[in-house]
Amino acid sequence: MDHLADVKKFARKPLNEAAFAGMTKSYALVMGKPDTRFVACSDPAELERVRENFLKKKLGLKTADLDATIKATCEHMKSDNTKSRLTFYYLLAEHYGKLALFVKK
Q1: How confident is the model over 24-74, as pLDDT tens digits?
Q2: How is the chain classified by DSSP, letter by letter?
Q3: Whole-prediction pTM value?
Q4: Cβ of 74: how many Cβ atoms within 10 Å?
């Protein structure tokens, strides 16, 4: 899978290459495993993991709209049956203005 092309396909703004590179490095192990490579939007437990582990723990978010944003991201990517976790996370970080967290200094 070409992760860069996938992110460019779904991103709402021009690609932040530094953030993409940081996310690629941060999530290399996750992306290497078949059972964690994709986000299953039809699995409530999976969506809870995205909310708790990525949005709350990694991005430090506490807002009430987290579930709605996850649902909107699922809807935005509905044309893709295999929703790349890297793309999904990039879109969420982009939405909340948190891509800078992944830029290596």
Answers
A1: 999 999 888 988 999 999 999 999 999 999 999 999 999 889 999 999 999
A2: --HHHHHHHH-SS---HHHHHHHHHHTHHHHTSTTTSEE-TT-HHHHHHIIIIIIIIIT----TTHHHHHHHHHHHTTT-SSEEHHHHHHHHHHHTT-GGGG---
A3: 0.94
A4: 17
Q: Name residue 101's amino acid.
A: L
* Dihedral of the alpha carbons of 55, 62, 57, 66, in degrees to the nearest 10: -20
Q: What residues contact 52, with CB distance under 8 A and at least 6 apart?
A: none
Residue whose token pair is 């909340």: 96
Backbone angles phi, psi at 38, to 5 degrees: -120, 155
100 contact partners, CB below 8 Å, separation of at least 6: 19
